[in-house]
Structure of Thymidine kinase:
Amino acid sequence: MSKLYFYYSSMNAGKSTNLLQSSFNYRERGLNTILYTPEVDDRHERGKIRSRIGLESDANLFNESTNLFEEVKLSLEKQACHCVMVDEAQFLTKQHVFQLGEVADRLDVPVLAFGLRTDFQGEPFEGSKYLMAWADDFREIKAICYCGRKATMVVRMNEAGQVVTEGAQIEIGGNDKYVSFCRKHFKERFYGENR
């Protein structure tokens, strides 16, 4: 029986690198993978998953109206698929997570989802919340805070380098907007030292 996996971390832990390496490992053995990345992520060329260390691969785009189960099912009619992998899985909806569970349960194809657990305010993303609730297996990919502790949180910064505490949950960016911190240093920066 195939499983739904959730690999989560803060920013800069190597989630996309892990996804691309996993896909390479499958393909090296002659096995097919289907990769997905969110349409909303416009940091790179659309339809590409790109890691900070320069690895990249083509990927299918998903948005709120995408039916991941139906897409994978149709793809299986054309050729075998041995694993589905989703980058930036925090942008999945509750329905997407349900569909990915169906891919594992009904189509017997393992699904590996990689994403952030929380946003810049320490709140869970919808996709991450339901992956934490419904995945068969979830694993943390470790990132490091500047202090050397495990980074579990993300802070959004403005152009002047100041912490942003309000705004839309989704604002696409990389190292130009987000910094990973341990919980202690997240709280100091987000809430202030004297909270």
